[in-house]
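Input structure tokens:
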């Protein structure tokens, strides 16, 4: 049912648009793209996300994490700020969008939880540090260099004589205004004040530092002429961004929906965010995602419907013809905008706490952290390796099944607990052999499977083989199936004609 936007939706949309314009330019620079691509990403994608999304507050657009992932995926195969790079960024956005739409259509929104919390903790903190080192050259007024986190950091620290004092003053002042504004009130326009002040001061006192520079102010146009021959190269990075970039907006939208007692659908949000990225691709922008800070501003401003996000996109679209007003904005101010957005993501507390509670998971988190720093800017590869390490650790732990044996009056009772699958089934077999060697006088074997959470096909085959071998050794066998029902049905199919004799159902 169509409804007109409320006054609060207009206020929320305007509040977000005022900070989104400078953020869009800053995040485009972080992604290795011209300012125009950042502004394009802040227009039509927001309108499309509002049409297909689920949350009335979630604000879509350029975000820091998606921008650095874009830089990492593309900088290894093309030079930033070139026409080829811009085309591949648009194709990457299309792949991200297509992936999210497909996930949403098959209602597989739960896939976002495939990344364990330790992996996300290690990756997010390290990625934030990587982003800070990418902004350090602009903040200190030195030439940027390529390389990983450590080389960038050392290059800045070893060039103090080249630091631009006026640029540092501009950047530090902007950072203080933005941080103070956030602490004063979520709706305080600290970013807007820092940008306006930076432009005015630059016009009066030339800080002799780089500025945004002039750029085309045309409206975005539609085009399907993307570098489709690079699709295969960008597929894996696109899938990674589709999943990683959705984790934060999903958490935001879910939390706000719960606190407001309103419905929310992860799958529908996947479709909304996917459609937004497809739109970003066809207008020549780059991957977009949900923003925590802008979503909280929209929520605090009292937004009542998805109109707030659409109005933000419309307002940025209306700003494009005069966007060159930002051309004299000093680069240190842009760096301050990004730094203020990512420094809250640096959280060593959970990593340290994890070290005290789970050594295995702490190893996964810290390994992901170090890999992200070492492999930067290819942090997408670091995340992929971290996820793989998390799966390996999980399988290693699941391979150890706990079997409780007991022996009374010629009856051997085995009670396995955990998950019986192809990796852990051998443990049950070995325990039976050990116990039979201890009790050669045993006449009956009881396998109580009620402590198992799941049984796969290999596990069921092993149970059947154990039962047959025990019978051949002269033991009476009784198998007590457990839960869930799937395990009982699987055992009946595997045991076949032996079900009535061995299974106690």
């Amino acid at each position: 049912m169509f409804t007109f936007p409320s006054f609060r939706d207009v206020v929320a949309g305007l509040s977000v648009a005022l900070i989104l314009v400078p953020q869009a330019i800053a995040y485009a620079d972080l992604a290795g793209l011209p300012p125009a691509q950042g502004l394009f990403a802040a227009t039509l994608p927001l309108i499309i996300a509002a049409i297909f999304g689920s949350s009335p507050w979630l604000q879509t657009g350029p975000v820091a994490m998606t921008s650095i992932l874009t830089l990492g995926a593309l900088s290894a195969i093309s030079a930033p700020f070139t026409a080829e790079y811009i085309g591949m960024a648009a194709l990457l956005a299309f792949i991200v969008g297509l992936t999210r739409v497909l996930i949403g259509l098959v209602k597989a929104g739960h896939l976002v939880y495939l990344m364990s919390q330790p992996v996300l903790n290690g990756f997010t903190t390290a990625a934030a540090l990587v982003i800070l080192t990418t902004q350090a050259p602009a903040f200190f007024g030195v030439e940027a260099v390529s390389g990983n986190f450590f080389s960038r950091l050392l290059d800045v620290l070893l060039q103090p004589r080249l630091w631009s004092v006026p640029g540092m003053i501009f950047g530090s002042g902007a950072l203080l205004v933005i941080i103070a504004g956030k602490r004063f009130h979520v709706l305080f326009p600290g970013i807007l004040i820092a940008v306006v002040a930076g432009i005015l001061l630059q016009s009066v006192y030339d800080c002799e530092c780089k500025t945004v520079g002039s750029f085309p102010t045309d409206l975005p146009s539609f085009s399907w002429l993307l570098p489709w021959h690079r699709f295969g190269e960008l597929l894996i990075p696109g899938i990674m961004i589709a999943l990683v970039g959705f984790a934060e907006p999903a958490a935001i939208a879910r939390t706000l929906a719960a606190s407001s007692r309103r419905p929310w659908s992860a799958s529908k949000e996947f479709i909304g965010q996917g459609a937004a990225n497809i739109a970003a691709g066809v207008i020549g922008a780059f991957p977009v995602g949900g923003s925590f800070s802008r979503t909280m501003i929209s929520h605090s401003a009292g937004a009542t419907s998805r109109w707030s996000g659409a109005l933000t996109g419309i307002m940025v679209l209306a700003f494009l013809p005069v966007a060159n007003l930002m051309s004299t904005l000093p680069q240190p101010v842009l760096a301050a905008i990004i730094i203020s957005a990512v420094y809250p993501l640096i959280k060593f507390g959970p990593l340290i706490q994890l070290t005290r509670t789970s050594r295995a998971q702490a190893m996964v988190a810290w390994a992901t952290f170090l890999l992200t720093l070492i492999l930067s800017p290819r942090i997408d590869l670091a995340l992929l390796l971290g996820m793989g390490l998390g799966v390996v650790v999980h399988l290693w732990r699941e391979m150890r099944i706990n079997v409780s044996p007991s022996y009374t009056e010629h009856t051997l009772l085995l009670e396995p607990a955990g998950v019986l699958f192809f990796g852990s089934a051998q443990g049950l077999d070995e325990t039976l052999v050990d116990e039979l060697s201890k009790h050669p006088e045993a006449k009956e074997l009881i396998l109580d499977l009620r402590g198992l959470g799941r049984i796969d096909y290999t596990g069921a085959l092993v149970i059947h083989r154990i039962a047959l071998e025990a019978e051949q050794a002269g033991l009476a066998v009784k198998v007590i199936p457990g839960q869930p029902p799937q395990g009982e049905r699987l055992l009946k199919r595997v045991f076949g004609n032996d079900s009535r004799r061995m299974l106690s159902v």
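The chain has a mean pLDDT of 85. Residues 402-502 form a domain with the Transcription Regulator spoIIAA fold (CATH 3.30.750.24).
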